[in-house]
Amino acid sequence: TREENDDRFGLVLGQSSAMAEIFDLLTRVSSSNLSVLIEGDTGTGKEAVARSIHSASHRKQKPFVVLDCSAIPRELIESTLFGHERGAFTGAVGQQKGVFEQAHGGTLFLDEIGELHLDMQPKLLRALETGEIRRVGGQNDMPIDVRIVAATNRDLGSMVTAAQFREDLYYRIAVVRVPLPPLRSRKSDIELLAREFVERLNVERERTGQEPVSM
Predict the structure, then answer these.
(1) How far is 50 from 72, CA to CA, in rounded Å?
(2) Collapsing DSSP states into helix, strand and coil, what is residue 136?
(3) In 3-state terms, what secondary structure has residue 84?
(4) How far apart are the first and last CA of the chain?
(5) Rounded CA gap, 48 and 11, in Å?
(6) What is the pTM of this model?
(7) What is the pLDDT of residues 6-22, one digit of tens each?
(8) DSSP string, 136-190
């Protein structure tokens, strides 16, 4: 349960009514295993929300693993997700665990999920539906226990309509949607955030022997 005047959820700050609604939603969803899709502009704090969900969940003692889907070359995304066996492809000199295995028991944060190539989406969907993965070059499926939290700054609903994102995958990852409002629409949070940033800055300045700054 949340206190009425609580102005934060984990790493995320806000005292506006919009953020109070978000915090209530996050409080309810964190204790579940439901997949969460965090939506919002770049810079709205999507990874901070994902980390806070993990920290408030029963998986908090297990790994929190981040994969930025926009940063992985197309030819490496499958082995990055699922791992590979030695000799599976040129350069695969040893066995490698993918992010699903690395996050076993914990939370896998798929950042910028809207950038995931269409031809990779069915394989991700299968892993989510079956709870099993197979390393590239492997012969056997292995059970995996991860909670999926995804994030995007794109409109996945419109991408589904345009056949740029699979509808079945969208509904699998967006069981709970968390739309993060941009700071321009919650100006009452600006002073709170500024004070928090100054406080963090002064902790670092104190550590290095510098004079504190004030607002």
Answers:
(1) 20
(2) strand
(3) strand
(4) 33
(5) 6
(6) 0.85
(7) 788 998 988 888 889 99
(8) BT-SS-EE---EEEEEESS-HHHHHHTTSS-HHHHHHH-SEEEEPPPGGG-GGGH
